[in-house]
User: Fold this.
Amino acid sequence: ELKHKPKKKNRHCCNMRKVPELQTCCGFVSLRSGSKLFGFISLIGSLFICLECACAIILFHVHPQFITTAVGALAVELLVHIVHSVTSVFLLLGVYQDKPNLMFWWLITAVLIFVLEAFLLPSLLIRALTLFVSFDQDYKMICITLLMTIDDVYGWLVVHSYHRKLTAQGTDVV
Assistant:
């Protein structure tokens, strides 16, 4: 009599096996070193954005009819980047201690940051800026957002690949 072994359920809610995996970061750096690099970039970037948003909320000078929307968008971005800063610390701890379960939460917040940067926040801020600055400056902001998005996607792929490498080795111990 053949017994059917039940498939192991994926520990995480999403099956990410179809996402491409990298072998190295930038073609010559190990995934571990690349994950450290993107962890530090993520942490410093999120902390800088938190500081920038907090200062902008405090010192915001626009027409009264736009202040609620602008401060609301900045408050959402501030909250998201505070959470992302915390998960960046977890990412770095996970990389240094070879614990992929600590890295997982950064992968989730990085996707949220990508969606916010690519679709929601730049469009709100660009709409607000078009009332006060020339189109040339809006174009620069769009280009910067595009570069940040490319960095986010590549960084996510590096960390995801290292996370998968660690989980395949069975080092997922808290």
